[in-house]
Amino acid sequence: MTANPATTYYFSISNISAMPNRFSKNKFLRLIISLGVCLLVGYLGSLYAIPMIPSWFSSLEKPPFLPPDQFLVPIGALMYILLGLAMYSIWQADLSRKDTALCFVLFVFGLCLNVLWVYMLFGLRSPFMALVIMIMLLGILVTTLYQSLRVTVAAALFLTPYLIVSIIAAYANFLIYIMNPKLPLIVL
Length: 188
Prior knowledge:
CATH topology: Ferritin
CATH architecture: Up-down Bundle
CATH superfamily: TspO/MBR protein
Structural class: mainly alpha
Largest sheet: none
Number of domains: 1
Oligomer: single chain
């Protein structure tokens, strides 16, 4: 028995626009969903970060350019709002185009790496593993930014502050790793 191509679903960049999308006509709903998804990602990360900031993270040697610990959550919230606006801008572009679909997939992969970075740094308390993830995140973020310039300049504008903050976070992550040599490389 052969599968009917009209009912066979598989994930690829070329058919992302064919995925069921009942929200495709409502711009406001897309905006709310985009912001909601990105804020949910931020919330998931905060489940690991917020309990560790006043205890474990405050006890670490940190570079002097880092903002005070109480500013980390508001800065993160602002970044997730900007990410939501970037996601909305990409979603508003024509997802049937391969370059737009690629941009969307890269963006979602970057969100996943973002949560993984927070988990490695705060959940597992491993600045080394967090640094490895952050390097991968920076690569995906630069690629997403480049791709978004081909798709929608608005997304690139929303992603630029996030790239800047991510570069600072990567450098701070590296320095935290160097300044705290007694921390384990990998925590399982």
